[in-house]
Write a structure and sequence with these properties.
The chain has one domain: 2,3-Dihydroxybiphenyl 1,2-Dioxygenase, domain 1 (Roll). About 15% of the residues lie in helices and about 40% in strands. Strands 1-4-3-2 form a four-stranded mixed β-sheet, covered by helices on one side. Strands 5-8-7-6 form a four-stranded mixed β-sheet, with helices on one face. It is globular and about 50 Å long.
């Protein structure tokens, strides 16, 4: 089995980690000696490693998809918590519903959940 994660260079891992915590993820590790923060969930482990450094020249070209049970409920909860979204949830042609925001470094973060009519849902996404 192959498992993995995404590493992102960000100017301020602490700020980015706090933002991802507001999104509902947890800090699950890190290396204080090099300034990294690992975010994810206790159940699934690491998702993203935040590394101090210069972000991508076009961070908006990187998209992080986070599957949630109910995109509309998560969107409303996060808006009340002060998370800004570029657009409200909407149905996509591939039968998923998405809401888009950006982390402090400008990476696109998508909350998504399958529509009832979706046929290609990977059941592991929603566990």
């Amino acid at each position: 089995m192959i498992e993995g994660w995404l590493s992102l260079r960000v100017r301020n891992p602490q700020e980015a980690g706090a933002w991802y915590e507001r999104l509902g993820l947890q800090i699950v590790g890190g290396r204080p000696d090099v300034g990294t923060i690992v975010i994810g969930t206790q159940k699934r482990g690491r998702i993203v490693v935040l590394i101090p450094g210069e972000p991508l020249e076009h961070p908006e070209r990187l998209q992080i998809h986070l599957a949630v049970e109910n995109v509309d409920a998560e969107y409303e909860k996060l808006v009340r918590a002060g998370i800004e979204f570029s657009e409200p949830p909407k149905d996509m042609p591939w039968q998923w519903r998405h809401a888009y925001t950006q982390d402090p470094s400008g990476h696109v973060v998508e909350l998504c959940s399958p529509l009832p009519s979706a046929r290609d849902v990977d059941s592991t996404l929603m566990r």
